[in-house]
Design goal:
The protein is an all-alpha fold. It has one domain (2-86). The chain contains five helices and no strands. The chain has helices spanning 2-8, 12-24, 29-41, 43-64, 74-86. It is elongated. The N and C termini lie far apart (52 Å). Bound molecules: zinc ion. Zinc ion (ZN) is lined by residues 12, 15, 38, 42, 44-45.
């Protein structure tokens, strides 16, 4: 049962690592399922995820010099980052 628990349920440390990984690359279906399951049960990791997502957006905006744009969505921000990196 311990092995099954370890396979199905993330610790808070594993959940925060998955949250950070998810800010950089897309998580696999299994990783997302395990993270979502953890987030249903853990208020602390929910707060961490919300903070991490906001911090990620602010860091990207600062890198682009657009920190004063009030309502930029994640997709638009991602496109601007890619344009700046690859100078499309
Ligand atoms: Zn947690």
């Amino acid at each position: 049962m311990n092995h099954l628990n370890r396979l199905l349920f993330l610790s808070c440390k594993q959940a925060t690592e998955a949250i950070e990984k998810g800010n950089t690359i897309q998580l696999s279906l299994l990783e997302r399922a395990r993270l979502n399951q953890h987030l249903k049960m853990c208020t602390a990791c929910n707060m961490y995820a919300a903070f991490s997502n906001k911090a990620e957006i602010v860091i990207k905006q600062l890198a682009l010099g657009i920190e004063n744009e009030p309502e930029i969505n994640e997709t638009e921000l991602q496109e601007k980052v890619l344009k700046k990196i690859f100078r499309k």
